[in-house]
Amino acid sequence: TMKEFQKLVDIIAQLRDPVSGCPWDIKQTPQSLIPNMVEELYEVVEAIEDGDNVALMEELGDLLLHIVMQAQLASESGAFNIIDVLNHINDKLVRRHPHVFGELELKDADTVKKNWERLKKAEKQERKSVLEGIPRALPALIYAQRMQEKAASVGFDWDDVPPILEKIDEETKELKSALETEDQTRIKEEVGDLLFTIVNLARKLHLDAESALKETARKFSKRFQYIEEQYRQNGENINEASLEELNSFWELSKKEE
Known about the structure:
Elements: H1 2-15, H2 23-26, H3 34-50, H4 53-77, H5 82-95, H6 98-101, H7 109-123, H8 140-152, H9 161-181, H10 184-204, H11 209-233, H12 243-256
Helix pairs in contact: 1-4, 3-4, 8-10, 9-10, 11-12
């Protein structure tokens, strides 16, 4: 395994060689590679969601290429190298898992998660808040769920699901009240509050809110494309269809699944 990994490191170093390397690779910077790296990450996610192991194998390789490339660029500038990266993650994994590599006993995954956040907070002494360290560019649902997880690590959390359901009812009533005022700023705030509470429900149910919404969106897409196909087959214009007609095909699409 190390031989294959070293081969990848050597290939990327050769691609970056100022004399015999690839012109495209030579001109890259850590910043210029960001869009490609983000795209590769989402392709990994897509392969996982599709359950496509062949694609996942390929996409993990593409993502690994970017990781090694970033380390190569850092090595050239004298900042760090790939060995430093590996040593750092190895040390951190051992340090953050005292229940595996030490004497600590933790009963379940939730307790492990909370302890991980406590250990991270202890290591990051420069951070003033337990909520720091969440990338701002994360999709909103993931950002909200990570924030809630960090707050829960210090005990700021609901004990069970029923209070969250009550909170959802409360936020729904507040949204209805805001709609009556026609105040767009307040309406936006109440919609955000409702979404945030629903994310909390997903977290408490041990679900990933981002994945749950994405699966529903993909299901919607499949059903809506079924409706479009029916109109194509019948030679009719979907733009002229009534909502009642569209709903009838929508119900039919659910039966076809």
